[in-house]
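Much of what follows relies on a compact textual record of a protein's fold. A record is reproduced here so that you can trace the correspondence yourselves:
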Amino acid sequence: MSEYAYISTIGQDSHAFVEETGECTIKLCGVDIPHDRAFRANSDGDVALHAITNAISGYTGVNILGGAADKICLEQGIKDSTVYLAEALKFMEGAKIVHCSMTIECLRPKLKEFISSMKEKTGELLGIPASSVGITATTGEGLTGFGKGEGVQVFVILTIKKEL
């Protein structure tokens, strides 16, 4: 009979918005969300996927963002954050993500109508059911720049199952 360890790891990322650009979209969890400002970022700026990638790096010890992703983005021109996440997942060595809990802080865009799609896409990318993805959104009562509409901040906790 196999024994397992359950490990929790945390990731965070944030991006500011550029000045108002008019109608555009931003990506969160790989989902296009209409907004009037784009992220200031080298990549597509998907802070949710970046936070997940950072949480995986916290488990594996392999720095993807600021490491491998810089090469993928800056040298190969690939801006899609799902590619960076896939790169991070390569280092899991048989361990499996079994739950993802995410909190998103921003004043806007309002995310309520997108949460279900974001859970579905996150589950798909991580190979877990959408029911194993929890996403909450908050304005943080306007106490930070994110809550004042200057960007988006995401914190993620992953639960990872590892065979002993």
